[in-house]
Specification:
397 residues, TIM Barrel, 2 domains, eight-stranded parallel beta barrel, 19% strand, globular, RNA-binding
Length: 397
RNA sequence: GCUGGAGUCGUCUAGUGGCAAUGACAAGAGACUGUAAAUCUCUCGCGCUUCGCGCUUCGUUGGUUCGAGUCCAACCUCCAGCA
């Protein structure tokens, strides 16, 4: 089992440490979205320096390119992308939701590669195998997000997610059993041999011989009775933690999280999938018992010129910043804010320089990482409610 | 001076008798939440009571025509060639 120590509780909120083979994650923590084994526009050194504790890559994207075999050959995700800290992989389940023309059956999901149209198929088992080959510390179960808001569709997707979870758990445990472990759980050993019908004829070897962990994913959309059902189902599984999926807005998230996180076992970590673009998401998520977050929003918005400040987001491309030689966020100690003015960032964006996206990404990623870190600190200090109130009042004024 | 070509929104450009007039860029603004996103959307002659109306536009001035950016004439400017 994944080790998770809780240092302090405050209602549903908790401050803890997740101990992974690649190191600790002090929670609550914001996990960087590294879909294709890179946080867009940033080097891992920059990610490290801005304070990121972990990254999350995407199984779907890595299956397409470069292929999970190559990542295994490189020594696993962490070695491949040179991120020597904790890693997560998402299962590819989200792509069922986001891609057009996916065929979902009980057995599998079939889709065409968005790159070259090639046919692909992912099953709960093959997602597990792929994630083991990629070798992240924490894997997500292969889940199904309903495309419609209809309750019937939601319920059906939820039940399928549960049935698939059984298969994910079984495959995960089978893989663990089949692996010939060398040394202890955290040591790297020889490549392990796995059997797979999806990734090579006879055998596929997993990444480094170190333990990898599985999170179940809670679904149920905006229906709290479904959320409760899903949380109960997931809670009963022999998994290491939980992803909470299918959340798209902070509206109603507090009630939903109260429902879900009151049911999920306290001693296992919870990851709020895909949320964190809005600071509100982080405050509400942490307050109601989530330990980690990931979101593409901060880096995507950075590339598009939308930058966080304590007074809300600004669009640095706006003409009013042409002659603004002040810092983006005077209190910020990121590389961007410490060295450059708004006028310079404005200029880089207007001239479409690559560095614009780099500096903006450093800032935005640092912003969400450090806000989450401060949420952690305020929970430890017992000042969370004050911090939340003053932060949100200023940010959303 | 002669001959040929060209002058359309900030720029380049489409348009050869019935459109305030194409596309691109620039400019202005907005969106973005488990990344098919270095993306996408909107505005971009002027003024309004702005899912519509009015006015003024395609080098200039006239002309032909019900109607001209489109045809004709003269002029102005630019380019090329010849003197």
């Amino acid at each position: 089992m994944l080790k998770f120590d809780i240092e302090k509780r405050d209602g549903l909120a908790r401050v803890g440490v997740i101990h992974t083979p690649h190191g600790d994650i002090k929670t609550p923590a914001f996990v960087g979205a590294a879909t294709r084994a890179t946080v867009k526009a940033l080097t891992m050194k920059q990610m490290n320096e801005l304070g990121s504790q972990a990254i999350l890559a995407n199984t779907y994207h890595l299956i397409l390119r470069p292929g999970v075999e190559l990542i295994k050959e490189a020594g696993g995700l962490a070695e491949f992308c040179s991120w020597h800290k904790p890693t997560f992989t998402d299962s590819g389940g989200f792509q069922i939701f986001s891609l057009p023309d996916v065929k979902i059956t009980e057995e599998s999901v079939k889709f065409k590669s968005h790159i070259d149209g090639a046919n692909f198929e992912i099953t709960p088992e093959s997602s597990m195998q792929a994630q083991w080959a990629i070798g992240a510390d924490i894997h997500m179960a292969f889940d199904h997000l309903a495309k419609s808001e209809d309750k019937k569709d939601m319920e059906e997707a939820m039940h399928r997610t549960h049935r698939w979870l059984d298969r994910c758990v079984a495959e995960h445990q089978r893989i663990i059993k089949d692996v010939t472990w060398a040394g202890d759980e955290t040591g790297r050993g020889p490549q392990n041999v796995l059997r797979s019908k999806n990734f090579g004829e006879g055998k596929v070897s997993a990444g480094p011989a170190q333990m990898q962990y599985l999170y179940a994913v809670v679904q149920g959309g905006t229906f709290n009775d479904l959320r409760a059902k899903s949380a109960k189902y997931c809670a009963g599984q022999p998994v290491d933690g939980f992803g909470i999926g299918g959340v798209f807005t902070a509206d109603g998230m507090d009630e939903m999280l109260k429902t879900v996180n009151s049911i999920l076992p306290e001693d296992k970590p919870r990851h709020l999938l895909g949320m964190g673009q809005e600071p509100l998401d982080l405050f509400v998520g942490a307050e109601f018992g989530c330990d980690t977050f990931d979101c593409v929003g901060p880096t995507r918005m950075a590339r598009n010129g939308s930058l966080y400040t304590y007074d809300g987001r600004i669009n640095i491309k706006n003409a009013k910043y042409t002659h603004d030689f002040s810092q983006l966020m005077p209190d910020c100690d990121c590389e961007c804010c410490k060295n450059y003015t708004k006028a310079y960032l404005h200029h880089l964006f207007k001239t479409d320089e690559i560095t614009a996206k780099v500096l903006a990404s450093i800032h935005n990623e640092h912003f969400v990482v450090s806000v989450t870190d401060q949420i952690r600190q305020s929970l430890l200090d017992g000042t969370f409610q004050n911090y939340k109130k003053s932060f949100l009042a200023r940010y959303y004024k």
